[in-house]
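hi got a favour to ask and not much time before my train. below you get a single protein, a line of residues and a line of whole numbers that encode the local backbone shape. could you go over both lines and see whether the tokens make sense for that sequence. a few lines back from you is plenty, here it is:
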Amino acid sequence: MAFDLEEQEQLDALKAFWSRWGKWLAGALGLAVAAYVGYQGWQYYQKQQSLAAAAVFERFEATLANGDLKAVKGAQATLAEAYPGSAYASRAALLAARVAFDKGDLAYAKQQLTWVAERSDEDALKALARLRLAAVLLDEQRYDAALAELARERPASFDALFLDLKGDVLAARGDAKGARDAYQAALAKLAGESPNRQFIQTKLDALGA
């Protein structure tokens, strides 16, 4: 009898607890389930988007082999519009910019490089885009604009490349001292066995003492 009474008290306590907290617990459980399902759905969506972007990128690569700038532009536009946040879009833009530069379409090359510099989530790609953009601006003899790009923040691993190109810009502008300083700074950033050291040293020697 004592056992039955104790059991009844436990049941009453459980009923009281559930009466007070049951709806809240059910709601919390529902939210947890919804969050889990939503996360799984998002993961699936992201995977499908990545696979779709990869397929479009493969078609883009096929246009590169033909060297048809119009086709390259069309394929890149598809990637940029449909999958702007994908890594494929940024890489395709860099490649499209190179084709455009080789074909003499500097305006399109700059547009694609700027797109990567402003939209990519990868710091290395952004730095590479700014480096190439500065090179295009140098080709156009827009020295101040090129130097402005080279002054932007970048990963330390790009310092030597940025300083080397800065030396090229300053040399082209007629600032021999500034160019020497930039080349020397670039050399200081390079490892002793770097293959770029001799190339930069040659440019530095050409400027004289």
Summary: Residues 30-121 form one domain. The chain is about 85% helix and 0% strand.
